Amino acid sequence: MTRELWMGRGARILPPVVLVAALVAIWGWSAATGLLPRWLLPGPGAVLHEFDVSRAVLLKHAQVTATEALGGCAIGSVLGVAAAMVMTLVAPLRQTLYAYALASRALPLIVFTPVLVIVVGRGIVPVMVIVSVTTYFPVFLGMMRGLERSNPDRMELLYSLSASPTQILWKVQLPSALPYLFAALKVAASTAFVNALVTEWIAANAGLGYLVMVSGQYFRLPLMWAAIFSAALMTLALLGLILLAERLAGRWTQQATEV
Amino acid sequence: MAQLMHRVVLPVTFGLAVLVVWQGVIEAGMVSKLVLTGPVQIVTALITEAPTLLSNGLITLTEAVSGFVLGSLAGLATAALFIRFGALQRAVFPLTILMEAVPVVAILPVLMLWMGNGMAPKIFIAAFLSFFPMLVNAYRGFSNVDADVQELMLSYSASPEQLFWKVRLPAALPFMFTALKLSACSSIVSALVAEWLASDQGLGYLIISYGQGYRVADVWAAATLACLLALAFYGITAAGEKWALSRRTR
Amino acid sequence: MTSASAASLTRADTASEATGAAGLVAQGVSVTFRRGTQVIDALKDVSLNIPRGTRAALIGASGCGKSTLLRVFADIVQPTSGTASHYGLTPAEARANRVYALVQQGSTMLPWRTVIDNVALGLEIAGTSKPERLERAAESLALVGLKGFEKSLPAELSGGMRQRAAIARALTLRPRFLLMDEPFGALDEITRDRLHFELLRILEETGATLFLVTHSIAEAVILSDKVVVMTPRPGRISQVIDVDLGQHRTPATREDPRFGHYELMLRRALHHDA
Ligand SMILES: Nc1ncnc2c1ncn2[C@@H]1O[C@H](COP(=O)(O)OP(=O)(O)O)[C@@H](O)[C@H]1O
Ligand SMILES: [Mg+2]
């Protein structure tokens, strides 16, 4: 049984691992043979080497980006969850604001960055604000949807026990909304770093996005790729963290085993 | 009647109130006009700058829509291949999920080294961002076929191609629209953002250059137009979904 | 028992004495649903009296308004006209004082809670202290034969066991009325048979009044003293049949010739209407 399980997992993990290894090998080979011009894409060795020699620079900029992305993501998520809960309890508020929140889904809010820069200046603040805002809306909408789609039979049961709206929110709606919340958080986590990087292009003088841009301008390609990989690694780390939290909250998110 | 009140009157009143208060704050001189501007000024800027805004908006839209179409088609084709050749799917699919975590837009500086600063890198990014949602969702849709229906087709000894065209493709339609709606948003955003970095045309470029000149009302006007374009693009996609799926349930 | 619910019971008793209301009463209840331009008469002028301590079944074809009538008593659906009452209390008062307990169609559970926390839910909402509500929930679980499954999750139970848990949850409130909406509908016949006699035993032990919605003729006969027959479009009561099979029933009751007689009577009543 366990052996089969393990083999199942092996069959799942092995092909992509082999593929990645093959891609890296091809990348290294074509860089070594000069098939791939060094000014286009340096070899894996060069990028790895860059991680070593530019460690200090990378760390400094990674710290800035991490602060912006994690801070913004946290602020946006907390506000999004809180707003969804308040709007669930206060109907007039929901009726007034929900339509705008729905429309915001399609809006490229990031284009307001220059406006922000004019108001608050360049630095960590405008980037964090943009990350918060772009996190807020998906988390809010996901949470709202989860709260709204709570199983009607469960709501009716609580109602028949004359539970108050707040009790219904805590005991039924909130646990039912957790899968939706985690789905939204995963989206937010993967966009938080991208949005931070991109916003840094025009709103900051530090951070990995800034580093990517500047090293591109100076044709320092290994550094540029090292910065990109650093951002990717941080994104994966954040995603991993959220997956871990989801697993820890497993009992509450077992919607698959819906009873 | 009460429904109308709740769904229309409240939000509209609120929206108007925000605009009025905002304009009032500006008119009262409570914040510097160098920093913030009012709705009236923004509308005026939208009108006076209309020719510039629209011609640049068209460029951004062209980049976004081209990337959207190319990326979605490629994603759909790849999903179909994955369905046909399971081994391919097992190898590549986990990678595609990994790719979603990679800040693809951030490699734009690299792309510009390769492709220059014209429309090509923007289209490429928009296509890239449209590719993965379509691949993932279409694949999920293709696999979403009822075991019963599959058994039925098997009992008719239908070929894999018949199964695909008659069952899988229609079953995947709702999933495909989910992807299209996502990509409609992200392709516009990515085109705009890509124009920030290096470009001498497009709405993204315009926003930056207005910003550098501290032309506050013009920045707002350009950003508003970007929002309107995005809303329209999303709206058309959503309307397409409604049309395609309503005909089915009837 | 908490002082609040004790007070409500006294109030219920005095109210019923004052008005002479017997138990579960509906007077001229009509419910009209509007779905777009469509108007559905789910209930039309329904009057009913289920005396206290009676086991009553409500039977009828699917869609004839059984759940709607039950929901009127549960204060979930408001009648378009007419009134409903429990011991002289309005459904709203009955709900607020937890005079009735509801067992829904399909045993609704909160899947993230253990069985005992599901069963203690009603007391938790009423604000009963944790030790007391866990003790009472454990008692109800023992009553339905689920001792030992306190810490399981609902997903780990079989359909029949979940149904018992739902009944235990209702019993934990020590209700005057058990309102059950097709509680055994999703179960296999073997499990259903066993649960029928468990329910009868529990009713004997607790003295609660039963109002059970079903679409099974045999279930209606074996479980009830009174069968209310409903006909659809508009939903109304066509017949009330008293089932005289004695207070105490066993599997042998089914072999009683009168059992077959009542079954036939009900079948005729239902088909005659159709
Ligand atoms: N909330 C509702 N809105 C509209 N129609 C409803 C609603 N609830 C029930 N109905 C309609 O009322 C009729 C009776 O429903 P119900 O009481 O659930 O029947 P039963 O429980 O006997 O199967 C049905 O035609 C049903 O479609
Ligand atoms: Mg029903």
Notes on the protein architecture:
- The complex is a heterotrimer of chains A (259), B (250) and C (274).
- With 259 residues, chain A is mostly helical.
- Chain A folds into two domains: 1-36; 39-257, MetI-like (MetI-like fold).
- Helix content of chain A is 81%, strand content 0%.
- Chain A has ten helices and no strands.
- Chain A has helices at residues 2-32, 44-53, 55-89, 91-104, 113-120, 124-148, 152-160, 165-203, 208-217, 221-248.
- In chain A, α2 crosses α10, α3 (55-89) packs antiparallel against α8 and α3 (55-89) runs parallel beside α10 (221-248).
- Chain A is globular.
- The two termini of chain A are 27 Å apart.
- By secondary structure, chain B is mainly alpha-helical.
- Chain B has a single domain, classed as MetI-like fold.
- Chain B contains ten helices and no strands.
- In chain B, α6 runs antiparallel to α8 (160-197).
- Chain C is of the alpha/beta class.
- Chain C has two domains: 21-99 and 175-274, P-loop containing nucleotide triphosphate hydrolases (Rossmann fold, 3-Layer(aba) Sandwich), CATH 3.40.50.300; 109-174.
- Chain C is 41% helix and 24% strand.
- Chain C has helices spanning 3-19, 66-73, 91-96, 115-119, 121-126, 130-143, 159-172, 189-206, 217-223, 257-273, and strands at 23-35, 38-51, 55-59, 81-86, 100-103, 177-181, 209-214, 226-231, 236-242.
- In chain C, the strands form two sheets. Chain C has a six-stranded mixed beta sheet with strand order 5-6-7-3-8-9, sandwiched between helices. In chain C, strands 2-1-4 form a three-stranded antiparallel beta sheet.
- In chain C, β1 and β2 (38-51) form a beta hairpin.
- In chain C, α6 packs across α7 (159-172) and α9 (217-223) crosses α10.
- The longest helix of chain C has 18 residues, at 189-206.
- The N and C termini of chain C lie far apart (47 Å).
- Chains in contact: A-B, A-C.
- Chains A and C meet through α7 and α8 of A and β5 and α5 of C.
- The complex binds adenosine-5'-diphosphate and magnesium ion.
- Magnesium ion is lined by residues 66-67, 105, 181 of chain C.
